[in-house]
């Protein structure tokens, strides 16, 4: 999962660099094309659920978490905004659980 997450981060960093020289009009056209593709895919899937890998969930949660709920609800996503927020909460729970694990198994040493 970490390797996949690192790959997603690097490829999207290059995607951001590709966007820098583009004009706002070109970016708007690309956004509209991507939104239309999402609409077509959702129509083809029907009631089937989209399955995301854990690395994809982590990347989307990290990317979309800073946005307010009102903006999230306006975005055209393959998943509901509440799902993204739940993924972020789950990531934070997992992070806290990993940090809170005891360093050594077994009973703590006692002072004699």
Written account of the structure:
This protein is mostly helical and 112 residues long. The chain has 5 helices and no strands. The protein has helices spanning 2-19, 24-45, 54-64, 69-74, 81-100. The protein is elongated and about 75 Å long. The mean pLDDT is 80.
How would you summarize this macromolecular structure in one to three sentences?
The chain is mainly α.
Write the layout of secondary structure elements.
Elements: H1 2-19, H2 24-45, H3 54-64, H4 69-74, H5 81-100
Helix pairs in contact: 1-3, 3-5
Could you list some keywords that capture this structure?
mainly alpha, 112 residues, single chain
What's the total number of strands? 0
How large is the radius of gyration? 20 Å
* N- to C-terminal distance: 45 Å
Backbone structural class: mainly alpha
Strand content: under 5%
Question: Low-confidence spans: pLDDT under 50, at least 5 residues?
Answer: none
Shape: elongated
Total of DSSP H or I helical runs spanning 4+ residues = 5
Please summarize the sheet with the most strands: none
On the 0 to 100 scale, the average pLDDT is: 80
Helix fraction, binned, reads 55-70%
């Amino acid at each position: 999962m970490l390797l996949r997450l690192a790959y997603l981060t690097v490829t999207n960093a290059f995607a951001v660099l590709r966007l820098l020289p583009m004009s706002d009009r070109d970016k708007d056209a690309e956004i509209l094309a991507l939104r239309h593709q999402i609409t077509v895919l959702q129509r083809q899937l029907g009631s089937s659920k989209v399955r995301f890998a854990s690395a994809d969930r982590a990347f989307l949660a990290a990317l979309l978490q800073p946005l307010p709920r009102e903006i999230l609800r306006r975005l055209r996503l393959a998943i509901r905004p509440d799902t993204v927020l739940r993924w972020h909460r789950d990531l934070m729970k997992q992070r806290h659980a990993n940090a809170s694990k005891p360093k050594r198994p077994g009973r703590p040493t006692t002072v004699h």
